Amino acid sequence: DVFALSSRWEGLGRAMTEAMLVGKPVVVPAINGIPEIVHHRDTGLLYGVGRVDELAARLNDLLDAPGERTRLGRNARELTRRLFAVETMVTQIEGIFDRFLASSSQRGVGVRPAVEGAAVDRPRAEQPRELAA
């Protein structure tokens, strides 16, 4: 019914985002990247790291309020599906590459393949057949 995370350190929390993706309300510590995704009382509940009393209180609050569990879970699902949609992720990665390439060309730095002789070194006509298609 509720996802709880008691870590003292967590980058973002893959298990947390997976719980949110399936609509589970989350009770998680306000550490590192977690508050960027979990907005207190909107997409989940936050508590101070190491504050077991706050964790227990937040869990009890949710267990006593099924409507609030449903609301938080729905909001969490909507947010994470928007943030982690394939289209969103591809657009963000493309943006990173575009900024890198623009920065490299402004500094006169060429971008070379990691492996000498890789297909990107050769004109399209010279690429192996499976890459030229």
Structural write-up:
Helix content is 50%, strand content 7%. By secondary structure, the chain is mainly α. The protein starts with a strand and ends with a helix. The model is unreliable at 118-133 (pLDDT under 50).
Number of strands: 3
**What about the largest sheet?**
3 strands, parallel
What spatial form do the alpha-carbon principal axes imply? elongated
Q: Whole-Å distance between the termini? A: 49 Å
* Classification by helices and strands: mainly alpha
Count of separate DSSP helical elements: 6
Low-confidence stretches: 118-133
> What integer is the average pLDDT?
83
Fraction in beta strands: 5-15%
Keywords:
133 residues, 6 helices, mainly alpha, 50% helix
Topology readout:
Blueprint: E1 3-4, H1 14-21, E2 26-29, H2 34-37, E3 45-47, H3 52-63, H4 66-83, H5 86-106, H6 129-132
Helix pairs in contact: 1-4
Summary of the model, kept short:
By secondary structure, the protein is mainly α. It has helices spanning 14-21, 34-37, 52-63, 66-83, 86-106, 129-132, and strands at residues 3-4, 26-29, 45-47.
